[in-house]
Write a structure and sequence with these properties.
235 residues, alpha/beta, TIM Barrel, eight-stranded parallel sheet, 8 helices, globular
C-alpha cells in the first residue's frame, strides 16, 4: 500500500477503535513517527493529512527543520533527549513528549528561561519498570508533575509512555489502563498551571488501537505508515 493509503487506513482504525470505546474520534491525534524518513516523504505524509510529526533524533530533526520538511504540521520530540541536546530542541518543537527525569526537567526549564519562552512538555513514565527504558516510575509521577507546574517556563500538558513489547495482541492493555489512571489523577489534582492537561501519549504501530480504547489522546505511529524503516544513514 502507498503512504497515502496507509495514513488513511490508520486513521480509519483509530476512528473505529474510538467509537468502540464510546469516545469522540476527534479527541485522538495521529503523530507520525518520522525517524529515518526523508524530507520528501515527510512532506508527502503532511500532504496526505498528517498534522503532527514526531522526531526521535535531534540531528535528524535539525536537518529536516533546515529543509522546512515539517511545514504545515506541528512538531513533537518523542525520543530520548540528552541534557546536552536540550538547547537544540527547546523552542523549536511544539511539544517535548519525553521528559523522564528531574535533571532533564531542570535543563529544559533553564533553556526555556534563557530564550524567554514557555515550552510544552509531557512527563515520560516507565510504566513497565524496564531497566532498558527511560522515564520515571509511576509512583514518582506526581512529585515530578508538581515540580513541573512550579517551573515558570514549562507548561505540563500530560503524560507519555512506551510499555513493554507485547508478546500477543492485547497484552499491553493493562499498561495503557494504568497510564490512563495516572493521567486522570494528574488532571484532577494538578491541572492548575495555566493550561489544560489534555495529552496522554501512548500506543505505536502494533498497539495503537488498544491505546485508543484505553484513553490515549496521541498515538505515535511509524512503521504502519511508512513501512519498515530504511537503514540509518551514516555520517
Amino acid at each position: 500500500m502507498s503512504l497515502e493509503e496507509n495514513i488513511a487506513r490508520v486513521k480509519e482504525n483509530m476512528v473505529r477503535a474510538a467509537r468502540a470505546a464510546g469516545r469522540d474520534p476527534a479527541e485522538i491525534t495521529l503523530v507520525a513517527a518520522t525517524k529515518v524518513q526523508r524530507s520528501d516523504t515527510i512532506r508527502r505524509a503532511i500532504a496526505a493529512g498528517v498534522t503532527v510529526c514526531g522526531e526521535n533524533r535531534v540531528q535528524e530533526m535539525t536537518a529536516h527543520l533546515e529543509d522546512d520538511a515539517y511545514a504545515g504540521a506541528a512538531l513533537h520530540f518523542i525520543g530520548h533527549l540528552q541534557t546536552n541536546k536540550v538547547r537544540q530542541v527547546v523552542g523549536r518543537v511544539d511539544l517535548i513528549q519525553s521528559v523522564g527525569s528531574e535533571h532533564l526537567l531542570d535543563a529544559i526549564e533553564a533553556q526555556a528561561a534563557k530564550l524567554d519562552l514557555v515550552q510544552d512538555i509531557l512527563l515520560e513514565v516507565n510504566i513497565g519498570g524496564e531497566l532498558s527504558k527511560s522515564g520515571v516510575a509511576p509512583e514518582a509521577v506526581k512529585p515530578l508533575a508538581q515540580k513541573a507546574i512550579s517551573c515558570p517556563h514549562l507548561r505540563l500538558r500530560g503524560l507519555m509512555a512506551i510499555p513493554p513489547v507485547a508478546g500477543q495482541p492485547g497484552a499491553n492493555r493493562p499498561f495503557f489502563a494504568k497510564m490512563y489512571q495516572l493521567y486522570v489523577d494528574i488532571r484532577m489534582n494538578l491541572d492548575h498551571n495555566g493550561t489544560v492537561i489534555n495529552c496522554l501519549s501512548m500506543g505505536m504501530s502494533d498497539d495503537y488501537e488498544d491505546a485508543v480504547r484505553e484513553g490515549a489522546t496521541l498515538v505515535r505511529v511509524g512503521t504502519a505508515l511508512f513501512g519498515p524503516r530504511p537503514p540509518m544513514r551514516q555520517g
